Amino acid sequence: MSRKSKTRYSILAMLSLKPMSGYDMKQFTKEVMSNFWSESYGQIYTNLKMLVEEGLVTATEVAEGKKPYKTIYELTGRGSQVLGEWLCEPVSTQVPRDELSLKLFVGPLIPLEVSLQHILTHREQHEKQLAELRKAIARMEKEVPDAAPHKAYWLSGSRMGILVREAKLKWCDEMESLIRGKINQSKK
Amino acid sequence: MSRKSKTRYSILAMLSLKPMSGYDMKQFTKEVMSNFWSESYGQIYTNLKMLVEEGLVTATEVAEGKKPYKTIYELTGRGSQVLGEWLCEPVSTQVPRDELSLKLFVGPLIPLEVSLQHILTHREQHEKQLAELRKAIARMEKEVPDAAPHKAYWLSGSRMGILVREAKLKWCDEMESLIRGKINQSKK
DNA sequence: AACACCATGTAAGCTGTTACATGATTAA
DNA sequence: TTAATCATGTAACAGCTTACATGGTGTT
User: How far does the CA of B145 sit from the C1' of C3, in Å?
Assistant: First the structure.
């Protein structure tokens, strides 16, 4: 049994929402899905090519106004079927690889000030992401009508992002005071 | 600037704690670090070979008792220096890729019962991991003396695992009632 | 004129997993 | 004797990022 690229399915998933170009998809992951997903151009374009060959998506060249051209991809019936099957398969367990945890795991090897800096930087990132998430939610609350079937799902994705980041912020706080305590101790 | 394998550094990090064989390392990631890290034999053995060539670790064949043999690896001075430098570098931001979130993102495409099943399975996994984490912490509390310099760091790693998993459990609960609500609605 | 953004794509190369292969020891 | 665990390793290849390459359009 071969591992299957998740990029394939993320592309199919995006196309299930609306037809898009490769460039659009990259933007979409960055602007809408960045909370839980990302893709690179390399992956997107090579996978699109394969998906067209397999008949799961169609490509149509479109010229709007004076702009040169743009290839818009759309899901085929077969494509949405394949997507549906994948969506129903159980979620595969992911391998955890948390670099910060690893670095702190052997924390005694580095100066307390450096550990502290790692934590503070991390904290800052999470705070920024939290702010962005909250903005995204507010935007969606306004723009998407409550009746839209996908609204609750989109919101819940952001909700997970918020809960997890809040938990990590709390942890950063705990770590900060732990390390500051150690620094004070060593100064005495 | 080439990306550098994190496996390299995870190996150096483990060896900074104590000399180990390749097999030991695999066990160690599974038993002690599984909360935030994992490695495969393929990566471990090939990286060990490179690290020996680069002079960052030494290999010694050891025969204990009647057992065949075992190659124990140890950090060299250069190795611990390289590790130290990496530890002090800022933590690189990780690419988020959460399959469950992706599947729920396009949730309206699949039956509510399937979404619910995904959530429940996920919930179960987190609960199992939480229980294991708590056991690991209890074990460490007993076995490791409070004075040990690494104790606080090890505990804090587990602490993050716990906080994050609790947050996810909370989210699972929210999702469960959301989906059950939808199921009831559709039955009316 | 320069810069940002739109738009597409390829090639190189690193990272990592999976599957396979081997063989010894120990407990049931 | 059968299975589990200890112990090491390789080969194939999947997956992904990065850097490069190209060229148009609109704005300052």
Answer: 60
The reply to whether B60 Cβ lies less than 7 angstroms from strand D is no
> Which residue in the block uniquely carries the two structure tokens 């294991």?
B132
Separation CA B46–CA B2 (nearest Å): 18
pLDDT in tens, B63-96: 776 666 899 999 999 999 999 999 999 898 888 8
Where are chain A's structural domains?
6-88, 99-187
Task: Quote the pLDDT of residue B1.
Answer: 36
Tokens 């038993």 correspond to what residue? B31
How far is the C-alpha of A180 from the C-alpha of B47, rounded, in Å? 36
What global pTM score does this model have?
Answer: 0.91
Q: Is the CB of A2 under 7 A from strand D?
A: yes
Report the distance separating Cα A108 and Cα A104, nearest Å.
Answer: 8
| Nucleotide closest in space to A1 (CA vs C1') | C18
Q: At the top level of CATH, which class does the domain A6-88 belong to?
A: mainly alpha
